[in-house]
Design brief:
Structural class of chain A: mainly alpha
Largest interface: A-B, 48 and 48 residues
Distance between the termini of chain A: 79 Å
CATH superfamily of the domain at 72-211 in chain A: Tetracycline Repressor, domain 2
Number of helices of chain A: 9
Number of strands of chain A: 0
Order of helices and strands of chain A: HHHHHHHHH
Helix content of chain A: 55-70%
CATH class of the domain at 72-211 in chain A: Mainly Alpha
CATH topology of the domain at 72-211 in chain A: Tetracycline Repressor, domain 2
CATH architecture of the domain at 72-211 in chain A: Orthogonal Bundle
Shape of chain A: elongated
Oligomer: homodimer
Radius of gyration of chain A: 21 Å
Strand content of chain A: under 5%
Chain lengths: 214, 214
DNA sequence: GTCTATACGAGGATAGAC
DNA sequence: GTCTATCCTCGTATAGAC
């Protein structure tokens, strides 16, 4: 059976599309790093899931660390940007908090791997691949909101620093446990659209009720 | 300067105390596994921090996995036991919740490495080293308390399952971030006694206020 | 029980053909 | 740009002396 000439129907692999190749590597790498962290991640596993040769990783990203840095950068980009353009200054603390939380939860719902990536980076590498701007500034924003709420009297007497951490925990821990608890029947997977929306709602309710002055 | 005879002051190492050797290995291993998880942990690093030879790990624990299992078991023992003997059945849901939370936070404050060990196990290994009894039962207890509180009307309308996860997050996330955020001046280390007590207080306050019916 | 030395496999990285 | 084949370091695990 003859094929149309000038068309490689069989042997689809050598597409020679640089962008596409990088994209699949990055996607596979994000998954691997999210589950295992930098050290325990295997370049071979990353390559295997893409279909492209392992050496492509080194061609495009120099080495494992280069790939890791790129994954870290891209994973955080969306979150950083979203939170930066929030304009919370002129809002009341409780509205600001709700908007902040909704934005945060939207981001991580879109990219559920982000919390585990952050976690591995924080625990394993003590955050050494983070620029001082990144996740630090996230917490700073939240601390400020809480501080203003306390002084304004709309939030109860809480420690802004400690509470900021706990609030983040309420939002993000869900995604850390997700991998472990997801062996559930039906459409109760923790990362299904319905469950993610519910988590967003539940987390925001819990936090707002938790900080409010009674 | 002569030393008392029959006393090895110099060359302290060959003590030949089996229990002591195992103990130092386990302590060092717990630290290493807490930071890096099973795969990324290095037996050489574990041994180096103890002063005993690397081969002692294999002598006492067969292999890296055997050591890991033992660390896992011991780390969880305290928590499992403490929560099992709580007797929460005859208490009102809000009192039960507070007691449960205080017990949980006491345990993890005594052993701050536990949350990161759990985390690594959940994310990296998808909980495969867990028996079905362990951390699952922790959450089950919490879910039951929340359910009873909702039906009794003392808690607001919340989803017990989702809220249980979020409550755990409020308590435990602190310890996950601790390694990363601890570069703080003075006695503001996140794992200092004062800060741990404050965290216990802040977390309980946030949760109780967050679930209560208004 | 403890150590040193070493075997062996896994995994990161490179060379060179196509 | 992509692949295959190979190198070599690092890390687990064992052998054997003390």
């Amino acid at each position: 059976m003859a094929r149309p000439k000038n068309k490689k129907v069989e042997n689809v692999k050598p597409v020679r599309d640089a962008e596409a190749t990088q994209a699949v590597i990055l996607m596979s790498a994000e998954e691997e790093f999210a589950q295992h962290g930098f050290t325990a991640a295997r370049t071979e596993t990353i390559a295997a899931k893409t279909g492209v040769a392992k050496s492509m990783i080194y061609y495009y990203f120099k080495d494992k660390e280069g790939l890791y840095r790129e994954v870290l950068k891209r994973s955080h980009a969306d979150l950083i940007q979203t939170l930066q353009k929030l304009e919370l200054e002129h809002l009341s603390p409780d509205t600001a908090l709700e908007i902040f939380l909704r934005a945060l939860l939207d981001c991580v719902s879109r990219n559920p791997k982000l919390p585990t990536i952050m976690f591995h980076e924080a625990v394993q590498n003590q955050g050494k691949y983070y620029q001082h701007s990144d996740s630090v500034s996230i917490d700073t924003t939240l601390i400020k909101i809480l501080e203003q709420g306390v002084t304004a009297g709309v939030f109860r007497q809480l420690d802004p620093f400690q509470s900021a951490i706990n609030v983040m925990g309420t939002c993000l821990f869900y995604f850390i446990g997700a991998g472990n608890i997801q062996q559930f029947p039906q459409d109760k997977r923790l990362l299904s659209k319905a469950m993610l929306e519910q988590h967003t709602h539940e987390a925001i309710s819990l936090i707002l009720a938790g900080v409010r002055q009674v």
